[in-house]
């Protein structure tokens, strides 16, 4: 067996299979998948009161390996680096914060509706159009990288 490189990442349990499929496109082989659930409880003093604080984590640890003698590894790594440097645009919120203050303002004061309409046309709509263009470019670039990767399979 030749030399290999390895990589360990943590993902949300719902994203496990999607992440495995993605890594395989870059010629990573899954070595191990381990679900981690931890719960830590301790007491904390805040002023004169003592509180019980519980922290929990739930994720899947994935361990991958890849052959270093893989043909075209340099090109594959270059595409992987390109892919990993992509930044997914953030979609603007239709209702900033939560919807509840907007509903309350709309029910009790007509100004809530006017404020939301102003927000919608002056802020949300232009930001949504920008997001749509950026997201289209993001998806186009992802697809292009995946098409280039197919040449090395």
**How far apart are the first and last residues' alpha carbons, in Å?**
20 Å
Could you give the count of β-strands? 3
Rg, alpha carbons: 24 Å
Task: Please state the overall shape, judged from the principal axes of the Cα atoms.
Answer: flat
User: Structural class per helix/strand content?
Assistant: alpha+beta
Average predicted local confidence, pLDDT: 89
Describe what you observe in this structure:
The chain is an alpha+beta fold. It has 2 domains: 1-70; 71-153. 48% of the residues lie in helices and 29% in strands. The protein has 4 helices and 3 strands. It has a 3-stranded antiparallel β-sheet. Strand 2 and strand 3 form a beta hairpin.
What is the fold's blueprint, element by element?
Blueprint: E1 4-11, H1 16-25, E2 29-46, E3 49-67, H2 73-85, H3 99-108, H4 111-150
What is this structure, in a nutshell?
By secondary structure, the protein is an alpha+beta fold. The protein is built from 4 helices and 3 strands, in the order βαββααα. It folds into 2 domains: 1-70; 71-153.
List keywords for this structure.
153 residues; alpha+beta; 2 domains; 3-stranded antiparallel sheet; 4 helices; 3 strands
